Amino acid sequence: MARQAVIGLIGGMSWESSAEYYCIINREVRRRLGGVHSARSLMWSVDFGDIERLQHAGDWEGLAEAMRDAARRLERGGADFIVICTNTMHRLADAVTGAVSIPLLHIADPTAERIRAAGLRRVGLLGTAFTMEQDFYTSRLAGAYGLDVVIPYAQDRQAVHRIIYEELVAGVVKPASRLAYREVIARLVERGAQAVILGCTEIMLLVSAEDSAVPLFDTTTIHALAAVDRALAVGGRSASADVARA
C-alpha cells in the first residue's frame, strides 16, 4: 500500500477553485503512483457567502475564528498538514498555525520557490484587492524570497477584484473579462514584470499562458502539486516543474 500523509484542505473560498484543488491533487497522485490510486484527503468547506460578507466588512477576527475552527476540525479528523485553498485567507495563516499542532503549507512559498528557480525576480501580482493591497502576501514574497512585486494600477486593481467576486467565484467566465485581464497583465509587463503571479485561486479559470507575454505562475496548480509533494514525501525535482502554465 502506498504511504501517504493526509492532506487537510480548507475549501469553499470559492468552491469553484476548491474543486480544482481536488482534481489536481488526485490526478497527480494517480499519475505518480499509477493504477487507480488517489489522494488521502479531508476538506472542510465553508459557506463563501459568510466569508465574503466578513471580508468586505473588514471583520478579520471573525474570519480568523472561522479559519481556526476549520483547522481544528481537520486536525481532529486526522489531517497531517493543512492547505488553505485560497490566497486571500493566508492573511490569517498565523491564526491557523496557532490553533493546531499540524503544519500549514503556505501558498506563497512554493510559488516563490518556482519563480526563483526560473531565475526571475520582478513579478506582477493579480489577486483580490486584499491580496494586492495589504502586505501579508507581498511582504512574504519580498522578505523571504527577495522578489520585487509589482501590483496593478488602482483602476486595474478594482477591475481585477470586481471580476473575481462578481464572476469567477460563481464560475462565470466572460470573454470581455479575459480581455480586461490580458490588458492588466500587459501593463504589468510594460512596468518590467518578468512574470505574473495568478494570486487568486479562481484566476486560472479565466486566463492561461496564451493570455500573457511572460510566464504565468498559477498558485492553484503550484499549491496543489506542492501538497502532493508533501503528502508523498517525494524526493528530488518536483513533478510540479512540468506544469507548463507556470
Automatic annotation (TrEMBL):
GO terms for molecular function: aspartate racemase activity. Keywords: Isomerase. Pfam families: Asp_Glu_race. Its EC number is 5.1.1.13. PANTHER family: ASPARTATE-GLUTAMATE RACEMASE FAMILY, GLUTAMATE RACEMASE. Belongs to the aspartate/glutamate racemases family. This is Aspartate racemase. The lineage of its organism: Bacteria, Pseudomonadati, Pseudomonadota, Alphaproteobacteria, Hyphomicrobiales.
